[in-house]
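Q: what does this look like with zinc ion bound?
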Amino acid sequence: MKIYADYHTHSEYSHGRGSILGNLRAAQRRGLKAVAITDHGPATAFGMGVPDEKTLLKIKDRLRALAPQFPGLRILAGVEANVVSLDGDLDVSDEVLGQLDIVLAGLHPSVYARTIRDAAWLIGLNALSRHLKEVRRLARILNTRALIRAVERHRIDIVTHPGWKLSIDTRALASVCALRGTALEINAAHGYLTREFVRVAAAEGVRFAIGSDAHTPARVGNLEAGVAVAEQLGLRPDQIINAEVP
Ligand SMILES: [Zn+2]
Ligand SMILES: [Zn+2]
């Protein structure tokens, strides 16, 4: 399987450790045909996201200015937005999302939730669920609901690392994503990645994106772990949005 694009990379604009120029150079060196800069949305806690959503448009301007140096490389300005409420609100406005080339969104445990109630679910309930079996089922239902609402309400191209740290019902999410044309990520960076998640999701007819989740230029295009899972499960290239279809 040949993957021609890495749609999930971070830079120093959020908590990545390389410049966007570094990511573009790495993508070119790797022979990728497309790369996206998808820094963390502003609600990421501890200053690990972009300072505000306007920064995403600044990154886009810089990418457009750098593009002539990279002929043959499609450069996409994007974001990895955070789901910040039970109702699927994101930490980037639809107005800004509409100006980006690609929108990734994911559930992260360390974010500034929209309201106290949302924080009680996202942070409190999920923390408790690691220790209390009784809470686990409820957390899973609410996590799934929030992600599904986000996919229904916003134009999301890829849901990142579904199930990482926060438990979800893969089947339910995948069936909605299949209808909406939203891809689920096979994340090549996090060790949690299970074949079971991909198998269950694929049965719902959803498509996948293999992403590096690179936080340094050296990891841009590092997709082997994701490709291995896709191949082990016998996925076809047309089931993966960034695979070359022969
Ligand atoms: Zn990160
Ligand atoms: Zn993420």
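Residues 109 and 123 are 6 Å apart (CA to CA). The radius of gyration is 17 Å.
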